[in-house]
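Chapter review: from sequence to fold.
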Amino acid sequence: MQMLTGEVVSTRFHPRVDAQLVVKLKLNGRAVSARSTDLSMAGLCLQGEFPELAEQVTLAIPLPDGKHVITQASVKWREAGKVALEFDQLDWEDMFALARFLHPRLP
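The token string follows.
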């Protein structure tokens, strides 16, 4: 965060892009579908309420080129109808796949 003229301004290292993707979550041993609202190299935001969602979750993100990014993520925040997840660690192949998806959509 930065302080400018007395206002707190949040800066984001990884910009988010709109991404209406159907993501699979592993919850209590079963696969659950959820729709993302946005995506970045660091994480994503999901629409919906997920009370059974633990602080750590395994998720699969299908990208349009047929690639699936499968990774662990941590819950960063929850608010009415949304859950933000931060990727724990991505391998090189997954990072490149995400970058190829995100780059043309960046402002």
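Two observations follow directly from the output. The CA atoms of residues 28 and 52 lie 8 Å apart. The longest helix spans residues 92-102.
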